[in-house]
Amino acid sequence: MGTFEVISKHGDHEQVVFCHDKSVGLKAIIAIHNTALGPALGGTRMWNYQHEDEALVDVLRLSKGMTYKAAAAGLNLGGGKAVIIGDPKTQKSEGLFRAFGQFVNSLNGKYITAEDVGTAVQDMEYIFMETPWVTGIPKDFGGSGDPSPYTSHGVLMGIKASAKEKFATDSLKGVRVAVQGLGNVGSNLVKYLIEEGAKVAVTDIDQGRVKAHHDKYGVEAVAPDQILSTDCDILAPCALGAIINDQTIGKIKAKVVCGGANNQLAEPRHGDQLRELGILYAPDYVVNAGGLMNVFVELEGYSPERAFEKTRKVYDNVAKVFEIAKRDNIGTHIAADRMAEERVQTIGHLRQRHGGNSSRAFTTLREVHNR
């Protein structure tokens, strides 16, 4: 299949940019899916893809997902993503990221990047040396740093909204929550849940992390292959995607699935199956939008307090998804897409596509860069 056929197959993207600089070993792709609501924002993933077509499909899929995520979050942002082809453990360099930053800069603000799988704050600092159109930069540069506490806080808000829908109260006191994955998002979520008075069970493939959380919070440790079948009220996947699949769906004993992991449903039909089983599913990209909300605040001029306040809106967004699902008698995964699509259509026609460097709301980042 040719390149243009691949692009057309995976969504109606506005622009796809191939970035190459042989001198620093840069091979990257930037995909801008939709800018009806504002400039496209999405992280840069560095991954050792086996083939360029694999990288292209990934960036097309991820950028489209960002359109839905930003729209459902109520943000004036479009969807974009970038991938750098290479091993993040061995092929990173200042030159590579600064060359990539020049390509980002050439888009004049139509695409704003951030960290993602395989990239970190240090990499964003190198990009920032070449362009103001990057978020998640170090706090010393006026950025927000690590977004995971805000992502986790948004997940907490999603859990509370789900509890309200399923149990008629958003109090988590005594509610049993099973957290799968103790990375940055899962770890912060455990802290928030304990503060809410929840009874927490945890698992991770890294047993050191499990022990550390058990010692610190007194949480129950569960084997990785048993977390889905553990007795709990709420299952919070915060690790790999596609965790809800043909092999696992029958094992789930939770009444609610609400977590921070991306792409939790292996296929859309698994969302329908959860509904048939009476398990309430809070769509992941609505629940885990707190990190995106955080970097949006960074674009306006960063304030941690305003960022945390922004993530509280996840509660309302998840509740709205449940309302649409009941209104239209559809699964919540379809309702989330419908909510996002309705906003793009309603607000998008009032605006032209974002041409770059013209949004009044995003002057602060440029001012910081030019100091």
Tell me what you see in this structure.
The protein is built from 14 helices and twelve strands. The protein has 371 residues and is of the alpha/beta class. It folds into two domains: 3-65 and 80-134, Leucine Dehydrogenase, chain A, domain 1 (Rossmann fold), CATH 3.40.50; 148-344, 3-Layer(aba) Sandwich (Rossmann fold). The radius of gyration is 20 Å and the shape is globular.
Descriptive labels:
6-stranded parallel β-sheet, 12 strands, 14% strand, 371 residues, 6-stranded mixed β-sheet, 14 helices, Rossmann fold, disordered C terminus, alpha/beta, 2 domains
Task: Tell me the name of the CATH class of the largest domain.
Answer: Alpha Beta
Cα radius of gyration in angstroms: 20 Å
N/C terminus separation: 47 Å
CATH architectural name of the largest domain: 3-Layer(aba) Sandwich
Strand count, sense and barrel status of the largest sheet are:
6 strands, mixed
Total helical elements:
14
Quote the average pLDDT. 92
Helix/strand-derived class? Answer: alpha/beta
What is the CATH superfamily label of the largest domain? NAD(P)-binding Rossmann-like Domain
Task: Work out the number of β strands.
Answer: 12
How do the helices and strands follow one another from N- to C-terminus?
A: HEEEEHEHEHHEHEHEEEHEHHHHHH
Percentage of residues assigned to helices: 40-55%
Number of domains: 2
Contiguous low-pLDDT stretches (5 residues minimum) are 358-371
Q: Using the coordinates shown, work out and report the CATH topology of the largest domain.
A: Rossmann fold
Shape: globular
Tell me the β content: 5-15%
